[in-house]
Amino acid sequence: MRIVGGDWRRTPVAVMSHEGLRPTSERVRETVFDWMTHLVGSLADLRVLDLFAGSGALGLEAASRGAREVDWVERDRAAAAGLRATLERLKAGPGRRVHTADAFLFLQSAGTYDLVFVDPPFARELQESAVRDVLGHLAPEGLIYVESPSEVLPSEVLERLGLVRVRSGSAGAVAFELLARAGSRTASLAKLTKEEKRALRKAKAAPSGEKDA
Fold it and tell me: Has the keyword Nucleus been applied to this entry (predicted)?
């Protein structure tokens, strides 16, 4: 695996062979960080959380691009040790921490983050539960990245959680999306679907039923 951008661009990172370990592809990482650069600009002042870190690819990309702080959470001891070794080799410096812990237990005492990566083993219930728990630790203008099998989270789930899908894409059997709090400035940058655009145009074209006095 290689880091796509930033100070560590093109640096190879060893990935252990482990059942269920599925590093986010270079293509997806490049797309997602292009989105974030467009939405928030520099990552320099951001606090980042990489839950279910695995190889740590997403958090490594954020750190490479200058994120102020990055926390990786991985309960598998071997994977966590491998990530620590990678950070030591890269001379990552302060503000880069690997936690060998269960993601949900970690969140019980976590602080606030501007960007959270949620990429658990592919089970729909786990994605939803993780996003719900992350909300208590998300900055007002923060973003949540979610990676899922086949399909993004259902719209009714996002509505219930008070979230807006800002960007989404797919690559093979993987669906990925960026979410923001409804009503936030970041949410206002959401790209509307064709159906949403059509409905908005229809609403604007409809007569108000009122006449000028």
Answer: no
